[in-house]
């Protein structure tokens, strides 16, 4: 079933046995020190038969870490923890990229010793996020707090962010990853610079779209100095307005991003552009055609796909592969289920971010 979805493909310099991509899913199973655990190795190895696993978002710098239980990739202990994970995935026959992440303005001061987070402009994100646990925390959901107005970044702040991506890319190689995906989506720091609503700067990093994309260009450059560009991906969401995002011309933004990606010859662009409302809204004006016009590399599509729609998009040239996020929570055997058109199990979202192995590694394979 679905012959296009399950056909092999070369993306960058990586041969994939199928075009099912495991999308990054923040599951908050690292320890308080942000070091990946053996439980995470088990979780990812269970899902290693997909074409490519993209890790959960992984912080490149303590200033960009604002999610309790999320992993980092900025010290030797984190590198060693991730090595356990990548070894398990490789032993199971899989391939895995590290998604490199900095949250920017979406970090609460609670994670920064009371200091303000950083952002391109002094504009708070919309909504709220999980705060660290209180001293009497015994498990379960964490308290929620609203985002705060960040400190507008100066050149030293920008230089630190760029350098942290380069260092994390070097650490990803040491940790045994097959490549890296730069997280430029979902309202985090790169996206904050890219989109016009959150970037009101008047210097060389603000204003016209080419300036707003300058940080992205600099980050790709330092990452490409550590990782073969054929093993680098970039995730983007130009049409998303979640968390107070928004751009005056998402199509032009996508085209600019595609031009930069093409200049460096990176392996793929991972486009979040839902085909139906779900975790994100379906865009009123999709940008896939603008991206394709400026970028000749592989495009991974993401957003409310099932096996049939993914196969159709690939057949029509609207994607080279498709990533699946939430279906992977309760279906470690998602590839087999989709290939055989078997029903998918439903996830218990009470355990999406808490519960240890419960709701994480204990979902069974299809039993017929």
TrEMBL record:
Residues 5-344 form the NADH:flavin oxidoreductase/NADH oxidase N-terminal domain. Keywords: Oxidoreductase, Plasmid. SUPFAM superfamilies: FMN-linked oxidoreductases. One of its GO terms (molecular function) is FMN binding. Pfam families: Oxidored_FMN. Its cofactor is FMN. GO terms for cellular component: cytosol. It comes from the Bacteria. InterPro entries: Aldolase_TIM, OxRdtase_FMN_N, Oye-like. Belongs to the NADH:flavin oxidoreductase/NADH oxidase family. This is NADH:flavin oxidoreductase/NADH oxidase N-terminal domain-containing protein. It comes from Novosphingobium resinovorum. The lineage of its organism: Bacteria, Pseudomonadati, Pseudomonadota, Alphaproteobacteria, Sphingomonadales.
């Amino acid at each position: 079933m679905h012959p296009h979805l399950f056909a092999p493909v070369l993306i960058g310099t990586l041969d994939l046995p199928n075009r099912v991509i495991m999308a990054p899913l923040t599951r908050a199973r690292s320890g308080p020190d942000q070091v990946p655990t053996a439980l995470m190795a088990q979780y990812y190895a269970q899902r290693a038969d997909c074409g490519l696993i993209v890790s959960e978002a992984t912080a490149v710098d303590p200033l960009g870490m604002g999610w309790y239980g999320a992993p980092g990739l900025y010290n030797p202990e984190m590198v060693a923890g991730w090595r356990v994970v990548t070894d398990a995935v490789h032993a199971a026959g899989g391939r895995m990229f590290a998604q490199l992440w900095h949250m920017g303005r979406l970090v609460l001061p609670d994670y920064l010793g009371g200091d303000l987070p950083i952002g391109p402009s002094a504009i708070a994100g919309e909504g709220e996020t999980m705060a660290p646990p209180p001293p009497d925390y015994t498990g379960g959901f964490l308290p929620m707090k609203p985002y705060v107005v960040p400190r507008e970044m100066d050149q030293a702040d920008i230089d630190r962010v760029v350098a942290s991506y380069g260092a994390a890319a070097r650490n990803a190689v040491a940790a045994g990853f097959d490549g890296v995906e730069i997280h430029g989506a979902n309202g985090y720091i790169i996206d904050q610079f890219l989109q016009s609503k959150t970037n009101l700067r008047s210097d060389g990093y603000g204003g016209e779209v080419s300036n707003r994309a300058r940080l992205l260009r600099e980050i790709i450059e330092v990452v490409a100095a550590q990782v073969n560009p054929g093993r680098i991906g970039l995730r983007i969401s130009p049409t998303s307005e979640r968390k107070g995002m928004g751009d005056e011309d998402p199509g032009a933004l996508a085209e600019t991003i595609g031009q930069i990606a093409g200049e460096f010859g990176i392996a793929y662009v991972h486009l979040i552009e839902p085909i139906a409302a779900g975790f994100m809204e379906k865009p009123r004006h999709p940008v896939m055609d603008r991206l394709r016009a400026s970028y000749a590399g592989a495009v991974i599509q993401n957003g409310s796909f099932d096996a049939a729609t993914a196969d159709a998009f690939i057949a029509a040239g609207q994607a080279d592969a498709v990533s699946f996020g939430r279906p992977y929570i309760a279906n470690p055997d998602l590839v087999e289920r989709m290939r055989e058109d078997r029903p998918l199990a439903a996830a218990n979202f009470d355990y999406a971010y808490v519960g240890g192995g419960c709701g994480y590694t204990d979902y069974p394979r299809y039993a017929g």
